[in-house]
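Quick one, probably user error.
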């Protein structure tokens, strides 16, 4: 049975890892390496990419080490987000929140901010902090008007009993032509209940 098998694979710089079929996309694991040609030292890019490899095979502690080393060599908003995700996936929510908030305060690229707001809102949801989730989804909407952010913010309003604001967000999602059908169906389901 293909789904119940695993494969041991040696990934350079990552070592031997057990991969389950669900972890291999199109029978390929992609890893990139960057080593300084003159010194033979690994660059920040190397640690970022190896951290990404570790995260993709659910080795979050190793991913955290490499992301931290990458940030020590060269601070980067994207790497802070990846480290925050690894913290969150490992259950270290305070550390994840600190990295998300660092990105929100120090980096002004819209794509970084939007992602930081969205993932920070998700953590607030997981911790039943619905008002905080609404705040972060609102910031995401102000940054990029994300359709999914409207849906999630509406769900938070609904959980808090604010049906007027919830319906406003759901109706907005339903009015969009560019939204994926599954998001529209969720919005419709929320308005029906």
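Nope, works fine. Designed sequence:
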């Amino acid at each position: 049975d293909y789904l119940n098998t695993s494969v041991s694979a040696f990934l350079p710089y990552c070592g031997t890892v057990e991969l389950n079929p669900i972890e291999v996309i199109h029978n390929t694991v992609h890893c990139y390496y960057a080593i300084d040609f003159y010194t033979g030292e690994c660059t920040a890019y190397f640690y970022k990419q190896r951290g990404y490899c570790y995260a993709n095979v659910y080795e979050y502690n190793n991913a955290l080490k490499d992301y931290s080393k990458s940030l020590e060599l060269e601070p980067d908003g994207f790497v802070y987000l990846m480290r925050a995700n690894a913290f969150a996936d490992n259950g270290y929510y305070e550390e994840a929140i600190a990295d998300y908030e660092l990105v929100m305060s120090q980096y002004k690229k819209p794509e970084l901010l939007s992602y930081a707001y969205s993932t920070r809102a998700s953590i607030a949801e997981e911790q039943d902090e619905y008002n905080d989730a609404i705040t972060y989804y609102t910031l995401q909407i102000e940054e990029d008007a994300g359709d999914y952010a409207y849906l999630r913010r509406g769900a938070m309003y609904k959980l808090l009993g604010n049906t007027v604001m919830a319906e406003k967000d759901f109706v907005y999602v339903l009015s969009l032509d560019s939204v994926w059908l599954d998001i529209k169906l969720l919005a419709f389901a929320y308005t029906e209940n």
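The longest strand covers residues 7-11.
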